[in-house]
């Protein structure tokens, strides 16, 4: 008998993927150059050329049996040491390789983190707007995802609503900063307040509560924006990182779990990740890709284009009457739709060859996401389409 649970999930398709499919269909009809596809968060700048050089050198100079053999359960030791050294230097924290577990992107890292510190039936709290895939990520572990309504004035944490959700079943808080879909970066003030609330909750309920920090956009922070290291402000933090966005490397599926050195049972959690892998069939990311990113610590693609695109869109769309909390990073923007029904708004936008994603599945009805990881010249050409869309509401 097939699994009814996963069969049912076939009817819960990603709205992001559905809008991306609509963009492809439109592109086949009118030419892709004429479609302003703001649906999918796929990096629009190439990976650094150095990556190819590093890969070729590893292939040419490594013993084939060693290179293409199984890596250790935690990931390749030399890679974990390089990552730990980089984190220790960057954040002035005593990371070592025992705090690092290699994973298949941030999604793989989250899959391990959830299972390491949350038992079936316990609750993980996240904050709207949030990445829609968090639901299946969490619910397929047997845990319960609770969503705190958004503070739509700032997209910082709605603390009043959050404290009402905290209870004895709360095992972890899932945060994403810089945030998909809003582009907002949680400030030092926000994270310190969150840490204080959780410290009090730990005392009240008599058990640890973890922050699971989803950080694939960590390097995409705009000029002058306050972007604190969350692991430095709360001891029980588990960082889940991906090189997909910083190195424009999403197809290679590489990232890691980094448990804060100050976290209770930090090394035990990392060791537990190897056993979690046995249960979910993870069994380490590709050796070649691990060895490649080890030599790319602190390096990124040319990310400045995202801030340029953000500034162009923010300036022009606010002139057209869109209400927008200005992003502090990522390549996303989350304006308020020009009608109450964001799904209807995004369908209407298709008439102008604009492919946008309604905010309902992000936990924010009435808003829509723009993923502006597209060429700047196309961003500029799309402004006339946005103008016509706005005028249609007047």
Characterize the structure shown.
There is one protein chain. By secondary structure, the protein is an alpha/beta fold. It folds into two domains: 134 residues, Aspartate Aminotransferase, domain 1 (Alpha-Beta Complex), CATH 3.90.1150; 230 residues, Type I PLP-dependent aspartate aminotransferase-like (Major domain) (Aspartate Aminotransferase, domain 2, 3-Layer(aba) Sandwich), CATH 3.40.640. Helix content is 42%, strand content 12%. The chain is built from 15 helices and twelve strands. The strands form three sheets. Strands 2-8-7-6-5-3-4 form a seven-stranded mixed beta sheet, with helices on both faces. Strands 9-12-11 form a three-stranded antiparallel beta sheet. β6, α10 and β7 form a beta-alpha-beta unit. α3 crosses α12, α6 crosses α11 and α13 runs parallel beside α15. The chain is globular. The model has no long low-confidence stretch (mean pLDDT 95).
Provide the fold topology:
Layout: H1 4-9, H2 15-30, E1 36-37, H3 49-61, H4 64-67, H5 77-91, E2 100-103, H6 105-117, E3 123-127, H7 134-139, E4 144-148, H8 159-165, E5 170-176, H9 188-205, E6 210-214, H10 230-233, E7 237-242, E8 255-259, H11 266-280, H12 287-294, H13 304-319, E9 332-333, H14 342-349, E10 354-355, E11 357-358, E12 368-371, H15 376-391
Parallel strand pairs: 1-10, 3-4, 3-5, 5-6, 6-7
Antiparallel strand pairs: 2-8, 7-8, 9-12, 11-12
Helix pairs in contact: 3-12, 5-12, 6-11, 13-15
């Amino acid at each position: 008998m097939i699994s009814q649970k996963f069969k049912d999930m076939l009817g819960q398709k990603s709205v992001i993927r559905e809008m991306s499919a609509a963009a492809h269909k439109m592109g086949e009809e009118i030419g892709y150059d004429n479609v302003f596809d703001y649906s999918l968060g796929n990096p629009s700048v190439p990976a650094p050329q150095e990556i190819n050089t590093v890969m070729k050198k590893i292939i040419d100079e490594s013993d084939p049996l060693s290179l293409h053999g199984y890596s250790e359960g935690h990931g390749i030791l030399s890679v974990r040491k390089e990552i730990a050294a980089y984190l220790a230097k960057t954040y002035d924290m005593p990371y070592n390789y025992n705090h690092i577990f290699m994973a298949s992107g941030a999604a793989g890292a989250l899959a391990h983190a959830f299972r390491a510190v949350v038992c079936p039936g316990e609750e993980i709290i996240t904050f709207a707007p949030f990445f829609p895939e968090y639901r299946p990520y969490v619910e397929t572990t047997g845990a319960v995802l609770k969503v705190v309504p958004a503070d739509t004035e700032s997209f910082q944490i709605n603390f009043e609503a959050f404290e009402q959700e905290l209870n004895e079943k709360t095992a972890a808080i899932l945060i994403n900063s810089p945030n998909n879909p809003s582009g907002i970066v949680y400030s030092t003030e926000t994270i310190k307040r969150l840490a204080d609330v959780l410290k009090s909750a730990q005392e009240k309920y008599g058990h640890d509560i973890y922050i699971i920090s989803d950080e694939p956009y960590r390097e995409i922070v705009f000029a002058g924006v306050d972007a604190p290291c969350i692991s430095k402000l709360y001891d029980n933090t588990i960082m889940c990182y991906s090189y997909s966005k910083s190195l424009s490397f999403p197809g290679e599926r590489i990232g890691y779990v980094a448990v804060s050195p100050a976290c209770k049972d930090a090394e035990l959690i990392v060791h537990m990740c190897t056993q979690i892998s046995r249960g979910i069939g993870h069994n380490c990311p590709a050796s070649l890709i691990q060895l490649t990113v080890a030599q790319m610590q602190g390096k990124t693609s040319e990310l400045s284009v995202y801030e340029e695109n953000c500034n162009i869109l923010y300036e022009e769309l606010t002139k057209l009457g869109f209400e927008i909390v200005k992003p502090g990073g990522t390549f996303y923007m989350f304006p308020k739709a020009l009608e109450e029904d964001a799904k209807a708004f995004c369908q209407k936008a298709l008439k102008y060859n604009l492919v946008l994603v309604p905010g309902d599945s992000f936990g924010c009805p009435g808003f829509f996401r723009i993923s502006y990881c597209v060429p700047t010249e196309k961003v500029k050409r799309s402004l006339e389409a946005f103008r016509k869309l706005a005028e249609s509401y007047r």
